[in-house]
Specification:
The chain has 176 residues and is an alpha/beta fold. It has one domain (27-171). The chain is 41% helix and 11% strand. It has a four-stranded mixed beta sheet with strand order 2-1-3-4, with helices on both faces.
Length: 176
C-alpha cells in the first residue's frame, strides 16, 4: 500500500473533517497570502517568490510571511492574523537579535489564503518539494487553506491541528 492509499485511508477515517483543496475554486480569505511556518532559512524569499509565481501565475502580488511559534501572530485568531499580514505586508517573525529562530514546529506548514485550489496545490507542490530537498528528505510540509470554520480559532491552535493531522497521516503511511 502506497502513501496515497494510506492518505486516502486516513481521510476516509476522518470523513467531514477535511475539504478537498484541489477541487475548491473559491478564493476565501484575505490575500492572496501564504503563511510559511518552519520554512527552512536556506530557501530565500526570492526563491519562494519565484516558486509562487510558477505555481500561481495568475495570483498577482502574493503576500508571503515566514512565521514561527514565537510570532505575535500566533496569539491572534486566524482571521486577525491574515488581515494583519494583508494590511501590513510583513510582521515580526520571531527571529531573535542573533538571527536564530526562537521556536519552530516539527512539520513545516504552508497556510494559504485567497487562493483558488488548483493554484494553491501547484504552489504547495513546488515549495514542499524544495523544503523536502533543503532538509535532506527529513521534512514533509503540510498544506492548509483558510476556511470559514478556522477563522475564529487562534492561529496557534489551527497550526497545531494541521501539524497533528499531518503527522498522523504520515505516520499511517510509515506503518505500512
Amino acid at each position: 500500500m502506497g502513501l496515497l492509499d494510506n492518505l486516502g485511508s486516513f481521510l476516509g477515517q476522518r470523513d467531514g473533517d477535511f475539504i478537498r483543496l484541489e477541487d475548491s475554486a473559491d478564493c476565501f480569505g484575505p490575500g492572496p497570502a501564504i503563511l510559511l511556518f518552519g520554512c527552512p532559512e536556506g530557501i530565500s524569499d526570492e526563491e519562494l517568490s519565484d516558486m509562487i509565481e510558477d505555481g500561481a501565475p495568475n495570483a498577482g502580488n502574493v503576500l508571503m510571511q515566514r512565521i514561527d511559534a514565537a510570532s505575535p501572530l500566533f496569539d491572534l485568531t486566524v482571521s486577525e492574523a491574515l488581515e494583519k499580514v494583508a494590511r501590513e505586508g510583513t510582521c515580526s517573525s520571531g527571529v531573535g537579535a542573533d538571527g536564530a529562530v526562537k521556536h519552530s514546529f516539527p512539520v513545516p506548514v504552508l497556510y494559504f489564503s485567497g487562493f483558488p485550489g488548483k493554484e494553491m496545490m501547484a504552489t504547495y507542490r513546488i515549495i514542499a518539494s524544495e523544503i523536502y530537498a533543503e532538509t535532506g528528505g527529513t521534512a514533509n510540509a503540510a498544506c492548509a487553506k483558510a476556511v470559514p470554520p478556522a477563522m475564529k480559532k487562534p492561529l496557534r491552535q489551527v497550526i497545531e491541528e494541521i501539524t497533528g493531522d499531518h503527522e498522523d497521516a504520515i505516520g499511517m503511511s510509515n506503518e505500512q
